[in-house]
Amino acid sequence: MRAMLRFHAVAAFLAAAVVATAHASAAFPKICTLRPLGAGRDDTDQVEAAIARCGHFGTTIFEPGEYNITRKMTWDLAYSRVDLHGYLSFQPDIEYWLNANNTYRVIFIQNQASWFVITGHDFVIDAHSKGGINGNGQPWWSYFATRTRKDGDGRPVAFTLSKVTRGVVKDFRIEAQPFWCNAVADSREVIYDGMYCNATNQDAAFAGQNIVPNTDGINTYRSDKITLLHWDITCGDDCLAIKGNSTNIVAKDITCRGGNGIAFGSLGQYVQFNDIVDHVLLEDLKLLRLDPQVQPNLVSGVYLKSWTGTVHGSPPTGGGGGGGFVSNVVTKNVLLDRVSRPIHLYQTNGGHSSDAPSKLQFSNMTFLDWTGTSQGSLLVDIECSPAAPCPNMRFKDVNITVVNGTTPTYKCVNVVSETGLPGCNVTGAA
Ligand SMILES: *[C@@H]1O[C@H](CO)[C@@H](O)[C@H](O)[C@H]1NC(C)=O
Ligand SMILES: *[C@@H]1O[C@H](CO)[C@@H](O)[C@H](O)[C@H]1NC(C)=O
Ligand SMILES: *[C@@H]1O[C@H](CO)[C@@H](O)[C@H](O)[C@H]1NC(C)=O
Ligand SMILES: *[C@@H]1O[C@H](CO)[C@@H](O)[C@H](O)[C@H]1NC(C)=O
Ligand SMILES: *[C@@H]1O[C@H](CO)[C@@H](O)[C@H](O)[C@H]1NC(C)=O
Ligand SMILES: *[C@@H]1O[C@H](CO)[C@@H](O)[C@H](O)[C@H]1NC(C)=O
Ligand SMILES: *[C@@H]1O[C@H](CO)[C@@H](O)[C@H](O)[C@H]1NC(C)=O
Ligand SMILES: *[C@@H]1O[C@H](CO)[C@@H](O)[C@H](O)[C@H]1NC(C)=O
């Protein structure tokens, strides 16, 4: 399979990048070591000073503990290694962070805010499964539980990679992300090997409700050759969200606990841009339902969505009308635990019934080796746009059981060609 070959090429490439980086830091053995200043003190200055001194041609070592971070921070890294044995703890001063002057807006899509940005090339950040970021999300979730949330409203992404080339993030933990856990934008040749994110509400006042929407595991945008290995994501939204111009993406060994599942999109929000998603391999996925008192949702295994062909207002909250395509996607070895609708594709996101149909086309998608359970009996619901019917939808060894024993149903609308789903209705296609 072509996607597999590409995966191995990417893995070999990244191994070379790590070796190169290790050599670089051996050749430039500048070392900065930090320890937390202690309760009530602000660590932001010392963290910035260490990265300024050792972030190029050097190694920065964070001893264990919590580092108090009180303002936005960018690390520019080149030929550099960071060993993060503790947590960068971003203080939950909500009013402060919501002031647009106090975050960065480096992720173009939906004008999302970031409080911590990594940029540069040829680096390794290794948190040794002992450190990372503490997002202190609980006050954020409780605050927004009774307020309107909007894309671009300033809730910060916990960990943003922007304009990175050849970067490695290893065994990194993000506790209680207030909003998206990760974003990678305008980057290439990045490997995330070991990532943990956990947005779990513990405010009893909201038990049984999903007050952690938008806590996506990652959004990828305008990025090429991004590899995600060994992820464990607890969230109330998209476990992974593959957005416009994500190409050569590999995700392997991904556990998603609660939320909406793995998303492609939304795509086509910006009328002036084509969103291209090409060559994506998702392999060894687990979608697990949580205790409904903790997180009521586990919607899909994989779902794909585009806006309609009509523009309704402008982004970040409105939009539509954008073109592009999604193609050459393989999902393989997927285990479902009581999802609502395993596979779903729709092209009416944010739309009205009288809208022009989307011109963004989905094609060449393979669903291989799916097992486990669904709460809904509609296992596959593929509703392609009449203006861009889907060719070449392939299903093989998709064997999902409906929990209450009802007979599974499948729906294929505007599908040009499909194999492997006996009885999936192929309608509306030219
Ligand atoms: C973080 O530093 C600020 C001073 O800028 C201080 O007011 C606050 O108490 C510190 N927070 C913690 C958790 O130490
Ligand atoms: C942001 O900074 C600019 C320039 O210093 C200032 O004019 C503006 O009032 C600030 N905005 C807020 C919301 O504080
Ligand atoms: C996520 O955090 C909650 C609350 O602290 C905890 O109960 C749960 O075990 C964590 N999940 C994982 C996978 O670590
Ligand atoms: C995606 O890339 C294509 C060219 O390959 C470009 O025309 C388009 O504007 C890009 N879309 C976005 C969202 O940047
Ligand atoms: C879909 O696959 C077919 C057959 O392999 C190929 O000819 C076509 O170019 C692919 N479409 C896209 C958009 O890559
Ligand atoms: C089984 O679940 C499906 C989907 O939720 C529902 O439509 C159906 O009525 C249920 N059947 C029984 C026998 O409970
Ligand atoms: C489908 O899965 C069920 C339950 O795991 C199993 O009993 C059955 O043999 C499987 N069917 C096929 C065709 O693999
Ligand atoms: C296919 O469509 C026909 C007519 O609309 C319907 O009777 C049948 O149940 C559908 N089959 C499946 C598997 O969804």
Automatic annotation (TrEMBL):
Its main location: secreted. Its EC number is 3.2.1.67. One of its GO terms (cellular component) is extracellular region. Keywords: Carbohydrate metabolism, Cell wall biogenesis/degradation, Disulfide bond, Glycoprotein, Glycosidase, Hydrolase, Lyase, Polysaccharide degradation, Secreted, Signal. It catalyses: [(1->4)-alpha-D-galacturonosyl](n) + H2O = alpha-D-galacturonate + [(1->4)-alpha-D-galacturonosyl](n-1). It comes from Dichomitus squalens. Belongs to the glycosyl hydrolase 28 family. PANTHER family: EXO-POLYGALACTURONASE, PUTATIVE-RELATED, PTHR31736. It comes from the Eukaryota. Specific in hydrolyzing the terminal glycosidic bond of polygalacturonic acid and oligogalacturonates. GO terms for biological process: cell wall organization; polysaccharide catabolic process. It is an enzyme of class 3 (hydrolase). GO terms for molecular function: galacturan 1,4-alpha-galacturonidase activity; lyase activity; polygalacturonase activity. It is found in: Secreted. Coiled coil: none annotated. InterPro entries: Glyco_hydro_28, Pectin_lyas_fold, Pectin_lyase_fold/virulence. This is galacturonan 1,4-alpha-galacturonidase. The keyword Secreted applies. Gene3D superfamilies: Single-stranded right-handed beta-helix, Pectin lyase-like (2.160.20.10). It holds the Pfam family Glyco_hydro_28.
